Known about the structure:
This protein is of the alpha/beta class. It contains 23 helices and 18 strands. It folds into 3 domains: 18-178, Rossmann fold (3-Layer(aba) Sandwich), CATH 3.40.50.970; 202-362, Rossmann fold, CATH 3.40.50; 375-551, Rossmann fold (3-Layer(aba) Sandwich), CATH 3.40.50.970.
Amino acid sequence: xxxxxxxxxxxxxxxxxxxxxxxxxxxxxxxxxxxxxxxxxxxxxxxxxxxxxxxxxxxxxxxxxxxxxxxxxxxxxxxxxxxxxxxxxxxxxxxxxxxxxxxxxxxxxxxxxxxxxxxxxxxxxxxxxxxxxxxxxxxxxxxxxxxxxxxxxxxxxxxxxxxxxxxxxxxxxxxxxxxxxxxxxxxxxxxxxxxxxxxxxxxxxxxxxxxxxxxxxxxxxxxxxxxxxxxxxxxxxxxxxxxxxxxxxxxxxxxxxxxxxxxxxxxxxxxxxxxxxxxxxxxxxxxxxxxxxxxxxxxxxxxxxxxxxxxxxxxxxxxxxxxxxxxxxxxxxxxxxxxxxxxxxxxxxxxxxxxxxxxxxxxxxxxxxxxxxxxxxxxxxxxxxxxxxxxxxxxxxxxxxxxxxxxxxxxxxxxxxxxxxxxxxxxxxxxxxxxxxxxxxxxxxxxxxxxxxxxxxxxxxxxxxxxxxxxxxxxxxxxxxxxxxxxxxxxxxxxxxxxxxxxxxxxxxxxxxxxxxxxxxxxxxxxxxxxxxxxxxxxxxxxxxxxxxxxxxxxxxxxxxxxxxxxxx
Length: 569
């Protein structure tokens, strides 16, 4: 990092206000879009943004802005940026930051703060946002002097995007925004204790390759770290060279082309029976950029009982955190995979691949297209109409699992999904952020009525900025995933899960979007095609089977091989 105290263009910062410095540092960091909501403690910054080349997107709620920044980051690989005022403005982005933190999304959040002299006095709209967010961010910082603002911002972007990415929060008192620089600021990044390891140790790389070569029933278990690292091509090369079957987590969807014969689709609680059986019978698990989440492992005591476990991850704190591993490789996924490939030898694994092919044939994801429209049927139709090529966001619930199962993902950064935190309402604004980051591409949010209604006001944002997002609402008048648990484990006592919905078509039209209502199977393909061809934002309300369930399902406390198959049995 340069030691100069001027901008990279050589212009002086002398005499600039904190707000001017803020704008110029954002431009130096390559920020093109800023999501957020104004307020009193960020007025000096917004006054400067009035004439900035950076595009500001006004959300209808700060949580929506945070999820937009998240969707932008996931779909582009660039750092998402959000800004909010102090107090409730700042606390409204907390869920968005926690969501990004759980899924390792690079984001920088800027919040306004009351004047420095008032901090700690319970001033109007004061909140200790750095304290609140410390456990749910990668780093937080309260800027106390205008001279420190530029360096704090530079460090925030660096921390957010390097190592295991994550959200960083910078809190800026209003007097820091208005103060003038009496001298050139020091913009040099100074983080002596922060040194992410990129290259895995060669000894561990060789040990991993030796274990893979010696295995007869290997499984590549792939998480979101592969996508974050841009390692999908290396992963696919390794899989084909080693004849290694691949399963992904929810965050890893798209890391491997699911049309590939080696792909077993997602594993875990609602993963494919093939992937779950394969993991339990495997003699070598190669986990890459995954963290052995409880929704993946099931009962940790019986997870992959026959397997030697290799774990490749850039975060040393993730190694052996949930599952004890035999061969740890701490390093960047792309670098590690490319180096392991060199040592992989050809091995005949045809019996293992034949077993997997039999499982695939016996236990495919399926549904019965009779009676009411099936939610899986909607996703299947969307996938075919978009040739599996759209960027697809989801909310959280049954629809999310069906999207993971039935869209048949082909490429990285295609699935914009809340994983670790499981944030209902994520899909509506995240799709908008993804659309801003990918102009000209088809962006869809497959949502449930429960998730959609939480943040549907952000449809107004898409209308205002003419972003042609398509929201497809699987409307079953239930909070479906909770209802499924009540059906299976609570004697069908549907406490607080009936969810009667308003007329989404009318609401969409009131917001200024196109509204389409589908109530009959005969209308499905034409209605969805009409939505996809429309040049602007569209909300499609599809009434689906109210009590359809997601299968397979691994009940809480059970092992992966103890999944309930439902209609798949």
